[in-house]
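request received
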Amino acid sequence: MGFEVLLKGNNMLRLLGGLGVALYISLISVAISIFLGIILGALMTLKNPVINAFSRVYLEIVRIMPQMVLLFIVYFGATKVLGLNLSAEVSAVIVFSFWGTAEMSDLVRGALSGIDTIQYESSAALGMNTTQTYFHVIIPQIIRRLIPLSINLITRMIKTTSLVMMIGIVEVLKVGQQIIEANRKSSPNAAFGVFATIFLLYFLACYPISLLSKYLEKKWEN
Amino acid sequence: MEEILKVNNLSKRFDDIVVLDNLSLTVKKGEVVVIVGPSGCGKSTFLRCLNGLEDIEEGEVLLGEEKVNPNKKNLSKTREKIGMVFQSYDLFPHKTILQNITLAPIKVKKRNKAEVTEEALKLLDRVGLLSKKDNYPRQLSGGQKQRVAIVRALIMHPEVLLLDEITAALDPEMVREVLDVVLSLAKEGRTMLIVTHEMAFAKAVADRVIFLENGKIVEEGSPAEFFDNPKTDRLKRFLETFSYEK
Amino acid sequence: MDFNVIKDYLPLYIKAFMLTIKIGWIGIALSLGIGVISAFILHFKIPFFSAVVKVYVELFRNTPLLVQLFFVYFGLPKLGISISAEACGALGLGLLGGAYMAESFRSGLGAVKLSQTESALALGMKKGQLFTSVILPQAITLSVPAVVANLIFLLKETSVFSAISLMDLMFTAKDLIGLYYNTTECLFMLVIFYVIMLLPVSILGSIVEKKARFKMFGD
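response:
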């Protein structure tokens, strides 16, 4: 069934390396997204009409446009239109961060607006200044709401990194294709074994994370 | 007078905690029995045992000759005869007021739609809500929803009506309109078991008042005996929590 | 931007658009069917099948569509099962979508308040009547936001069909860019067509979501 090809040489290691590329891109993008997302989310609560209009358009673009299309636009388009020669990896990080920032900012905005003004007022009544209020009262409450949702975003990013093979990044699917091609003659059924394994690898990467997220959500439901 | 509801040695446990302890009670036809007591003493659980929403570990509940058994197949038939109104009214949000009332009689009792509608409209008129028949629950106030909930239970023609703290979730100004409905039901001879902490109302509507504490009946009596001449210290202390005299 | 180029490429894009829509909505229909059946199985805790559904849902929610497509299109033929690219696309989307829809419907069913069940039972309703008259209508309305989100997600996922050589919008764009280098025009048209495909769904979806929310909660 083609699984034997994985035991040859360092094929398995190469596959894992490909998955590593996926994780690497996801993590960098998530970090950027969280950072920018928090800033944008906080800005969105200011009820400034310009910011609101901008963010509505921005979020709708991310909601409608498939990531693949965005990848194409950045990777192929940047060169033509902006004259920049972006590597596939950089394009991927840009697109994923663009996506992630939109989602994070929406989450942050939702979490912040979910906190009643009464919390700010009672903190002020107790004599706390703005920084103390945010630090001790507001932020702890938001974090509990944000973490499970952010973990969910990470899982989705990891899955979406599979797309980057379409702009040539050598991640796990591409490695898989190379292995299959290289072993055409010796293992004609390698396609089954290799892709089944990749299927399983993604599952093993994402499932524990999603379990963690569910566990945290239940734990912090109160 | 005929005995309608009999509870014999009812006991109920949640894990290791005894919630209801060897309770026995008889309700006669047309009698209004009011149960009061501190929060968490098992009053609501007791009512829920009576129509099979809760399991019982020991004892039995008899409606006439029939046993109320949560595990028996004819439970839904028995429930047609025991009406219950909940604290959270729980009208069906996706149906109009009229549909809320007519759903059960049509589907469960298989009555004729025109006939049921006519009765429903009469009952709605009686509680002053005829104009709301095509509205949805979300458009009604708490007090209005609760009155509809009472009508919804009444139209099943139950032999006994269980009312579980039906005014506890209402704004104070709406409590009266609901309790007036219950008073009129008492006047027309309905058999009712009411759990409440509206003491003035209890005094006005009850034939008999029962004090339940820690799952046991501590004292019972007529409203006059109960409120004006409490015999046990525990009841005295409980009643004191409702008055502000120094 | 050269509009003559756009005029020339338009028929190709339209053909690709129709293909994407066709396979996309077939896949979505399949996912709704699978989702509803799975949700029922999970809600009623049917033995054995519940376990099967749980495994299915976790497997397909934690793996990307691209991997699933590769596995079905390139891997299964090695076992003797070969499917056309179109069928593969629809099937893949249906299986992936089914897992997401199952989760959405199941949580919709679970979101109906317990007190609704108790009120209905207290009125003497039997389990079957309770389910069809009280629980199901509310569950459907409660599932709407999640289902709308899934629809948009699934339509976006169709963008990976090009990987198994389906001549969809992405394939067409990549092909034309590779052949004629009119990158700007190609990308522009790509975006326009995806907007046509998804914006109406997004707007309609929001409207339906608002209506459902009003129906259940009155706000």
